[in-house]
Specification:
Elements: H1 2-9, E1 10-11, H2 13-21, E2 29-33, H3 44-50, E3 57-58, H4 78-86, E4 95-99, H5 109-118, E5 124-127, H6 130-136, E6 162-163, H7 165-174, E7 178-181, H8 185-189, E8 206-207, H9 223-232, E9 241-244, H10 251-260, E10 267-269, H11 272-279, H12 288-293
Parallel strand pairs: 1-5, 2-3, 2-4, 4-5, 6-10, 7-8, 7-9, 9-10
Helix pairs in contact: 5-10
Length: about 290
Amino acid sequence: MAAQVLGKALVSSKWLAEAVKAGRVGAGLRVLDASWYPPQERNARQEFRESHIPGASFFDIEECRDKSSPYDFMLPSVAGFADYVGQLGIGNDTHVVVYDGDKLGTFYAPRAWWMFRVFGHRQVSVLNGGFKNWVKEGHPVTAEVSQPPPAVFKAKLDKSLLKTFEEMMENVGSKRFQVVDSRPEGRFRGTELDQGLESGHIPGAVNIPFQSFLTETGHEKSVEEIQQMFREKKVDLSKPLTITCRKGVTACHIALAAYLCGKPDVSIYDGSWSEWFHRAPPEYKVSEMKRNKA
């Protein structure tokens, strides 16, 4: 089962390069650059204009979100997502491949992968190793921006892949599902600031930093290595599992990793720490820094 799932959730640079060369990018196969960087560091859209995989379109995570929310990158409405991806030439029968240009290899692409899945699209894959390795392996790039004709995409929210603040609050007492936090250890423990916020974690959460799922080259680790990581943290993949992080982005790395192990039903707490910090009562925010001050 894992091998079959692996083939759907990840595609190699070699596979995509062959598809590009064969002219298969079109209505049946769309490639999306889902890069995002802090504005003071890099300009994702400008970098896309200068160099991207031939035939790719830019998936703007700043645009495809709930702009009315006070929290970063919350999911857009069903209609908003359907309209946005339809304008990129994506229909319900399109195989979508997402990548990003982060120096790690992959950062925002799993978020785009999960967004498609939570809106009912199953034919979506992440480019293993990202744009960094695509370039490193000598595959073609272009500055030519394609304009795919619009398509009709019918979206339906799959609530089983999404958790709300209220559900996370209820789970602190009921422990109906396991919770894994994908942030760096210092932010999870509360010993360092989390992008300006005091840090800490949801009671009962287990910490597995998302970068630990990637190899030094920026590729996804093997299924065997991933399974061992979950076992070491006593995360049971046969039971319900929800992932949280800072803003619902790196959590999607762990959802992808679990999917590769044959577990497709992992949910994401979309608001994550940015919402939890502002809405949860103080006793529901576990922090070593607070304990030390006390």
